Amino acid sequence: MWWMDSINLDVKNNQLYIAGFQAEALAKEFGTPLYVYNGNKIIENFKALKEAFFAQKANPRIHFAMKANSHLAILRLLQKEGAFIDAVSPNEVEIALKVGFSKEKILFTGTSVSNKDLERLVKAEVVINIDSFSQLKRLKKFGFNGKASIRWNPGTGAGHHSHTITAGKFIKFGIPEHQIESAFKLAKTLGINIVGLHQHIGSGWLGKDVNTFLETVDKTIAVAKKAEELLEKKFEFIDFGGGPGIRYKKEQAVFPLEKYAKGIAEKMRASKLSAEIAIEPGRSIVGDAGVFLCEVNTVEEKNIPLAGVNAGFNDLIRPSFYGSYHEIVNCGNVNGRETEDYMIAGNLCESSDVFNENKQALRELPVLEEGNILAILSAGAYGFEMGSNYNSRALSACVLLLNRKTHVIRERQNLDDVLAKQKEI
Ligand SMILES: Cc1ncc(COP(=O)(O)O)c(C=O)c1O
Fold first, then answer.
1. CA neighbours within 13 Å on the CB side: how many for 388?
2. For the residues 92-116, what does the mean pLDDT come to?
3. Which of 34, 158, 224, 388 could share a disulfide with 205, CB 3.0–4.6 Å?
């Protein structure tokens, strides 16, 4: 099983273990659907990133992209490790502050930012990454006198799906190449203190896309040099965004961490810019540290062989939304020799609600029985975070495994939670 070494899962006596805990026992104790996060793996991933840069004699600001997983307990783990934060909403900013990240360590990157949002951000005194001329002008009106950077669109994007590509044509983010000089000029005229430049080309790139990314690093460095001349000052940081992918399936290569870190570090060194390197990884820190557990409640041959589970895309939307592949493991019979092909069907009233990467791609699994617990692997990033109450389903519970202990870090919602804030008329 390729995922055993790669993502710290074990199989003993044909049973799946997560960080030393038997998956079926976790399902029994905490109920399903259940997110299980391996806190030690999260720390390990963060350290691996840091060390990849240390090996290149670079010490980047690692802004954890909390949109990938914003549980307080997980943010606290990363705060203790010295992480910075990439926040994309005022709520995320205020959550990060509550966890204890200092305002200097929080970079807000928004899009279609409202005046109400701006007011809260100015009050929070975090660094604001500006993504439009409109935001630049309105910030001035709110009496902003803090630090800001500018997000530009380097013209090329990459990502695991078109939805996650965030640079290039037909993209709403950042200031495009032909306007970037004007943006710096306007910032200068308005007296906005620009201390950095930012790019984020997309999420979940691997393989050849690392070269595409490194080409955009060159472009961003060139723009930073021009901007420093224009503004007559040195930047404090250049932020190359997030995006490093993870291995969701056997056929995918492992992310070339050394090539990535070396590429950025060498290019920055050659540029002679004094700015610090910043990056904004989310998926590569938490993605493979999360497992989603659900229970089989229906095994039946319809016009397709079907295994129905007690979860849906309200819990984990990546397969339905992006056609994403997640490994699925029968926790109590991992290596069973007798197998069948199944549609792993969710419990929502939508035919797209399956955990296979698409409806036609049936998944071969050891023969399933009702009551079996399934583990959907690599669900730690953009899993729970993209959850919803669709079909009035409750959000699942979340457990953190840390140093051989279990911690419930989010309780399962109940009907009152689903109804909260509603008013009858
Ligand atoms: C601005 C920005 N930074 C960082 C990230 C994190 O990306 P990833 O989780 O792929 O590292 C995202 C996600 O799309 C983003 O929009």
1. 8
2. 97
3. 158
